[in-house]
Fold this sequence. Notes:
- 28% of the residues lie in helices and 24% in strands.
- By secondary structure, it is an alpha+beta fold.
- Among the domains are: 42-147, Immunoglobulin-like (Sandwich), CATH 2.60.40.10; 168-212.
- Strands 3, 4, 6, 7 and 8 form a five-stranded antiparallel β-sheet that branches. A three-stranded antiparallel β-sheet has the order 1-2-5, with no helix packed on it.
- Helix 4 runs antiparallel to helix 5.
- The longest helix has 18 residues, at 189-206.
- It is elongated.
- The relative contact order is 0.12.
Amino acid sequence: xxxxxxxxxxxxxxxxxxxxxxxxxxxxxxxxxxxxxxxxxxxxxxxxxxxxxxxxxxxxxxxxxxxxxxxxxxxxxxxxxxxxxxxxxxxxxxxxxxxxxxxxxxxxxxxxxxxxxxxxxxxxxxxxxxxxxxxxxxxxxxxxxxxxxxxxxxxxxxxxxxxxxxxxxxxxxxxxxxxxxxxxxxxxxxxxxxxxxxxxxxxxxxxxxxxxxxxxxxxx
Length: 220
């Protein structure tokens, strides 16, 4: 009994040691770290769901300096950073100047933001820019155009479904090829009967009589 008990614990210890990686040495090449920026002034917006999109951007030092030169050295301190979202409605051809918009204030140190839109299914485009206390707005750059998915069940009800014109004899021939005439090698009577039932169901579906279909009792 003692030997058996000792052997049992020895087997358990061996099993545990197989998955013990505490003393193992690993070397993972993480590669070079990602840069803080790519030197590309741009704003990109991506659809997340019908009522939200994701925006990310990069403002280079050169672009920031251009704003300071054009609008004053205190431009960045006297303003707030804004995502101005233009709602183009259902058409991407709507002139942006005539479209409604709303502003989302974002943190100046941030480079990404989630934006909630009021209407699903509409086309949106955004400007990233600075807004002064008096309402003045200067766009740094404009995003791509996106169309949000419609957040409801489709109202299209005039779809036309393809009809499959397969006559009864062709269904019978396909069934015979699938299950074999009188059974196939290695196939049991039960599996052959199951295949036959499937083909009978498919034939009833494409002939428009699925509601009246019922599996037939196997012959004794």
